[in-house]
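User: structure tokens for this one?
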Amino acid sequence: MQSVSFPTNNSDAHFTVFKVPQWRASVYQFLSVQLWGNLPSTLQKRFSAWYSRFYTKSYSRKIIGPYLRVNYSDKNYLQKFKPPHGKAEFDTFQDFFTREFKELPQNQSNYVWPCEGLLCDTGRVGDTKVSSVKGDERNIETIFQVTQNSIPENYFFSNVFLHNKNYHRIHAPVSGTISRIQHVPGDLVVLRPWIYKQNPSLPALRNERYNIDIVDTMGRTWYLSIVGGPAVGTIALPEKLTVGTKVHKLQEIALFYLGSTCCMVAPELPQYHSKNTFVEVGATY
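Assistant:
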């Protein structure tokens, strides 16, 4: 397995939560939450499924090349990935979107980031604010569907937004045992954190998601919430991933078919990353 070096505090100015002017963010939030968000969830899902079918057509592979040139400065970016499902080539854009590592990153740290994207929200659980969603007050426990105050206040919350260009598989941040897998039905409001300004985790409080808990070797629970958004055809879990399954660090535990967010509550604090920095799969947590 090849060695990979990681940035420790890579600021991603392009995706900063505060880049969009407040007036424009307010308009986007109104469209996402008040208009689209008030449509029945079934209608949101039907439209998302219809829209996402475009990326499964053979002609969609023609946009892979231009997409790479626009979004990646590294001309050899795709060389570290392979097509999914044992394919020899990327036959559709969906194949590119669900690309797999040829070799998983190698890191001796016991705790790693489970995904790639913008760390758009962070903080100790005890310091997080309650959010109002559809008239209800909701907190961090709402995302993970556990009882209030059941997560220790000194645990650390993180929300990583996966842009369309990011790698969209979720890996175990720690070795341990799966103690819970829960599907939570919900909406599919827009995930992009910069349109919610001071409340970038709002979509995670109301969107459809899978919650997966991992108990590490010290008996501590790591809570993950894998959140879908508009155009998400599905969130897929490995067939053999069940409660009681032992997983090793960096083992794949979920796959998105278009747009996503990954929230996590961990008993450890991140060592190198802060809000509005870019995290990578396998980088030291």
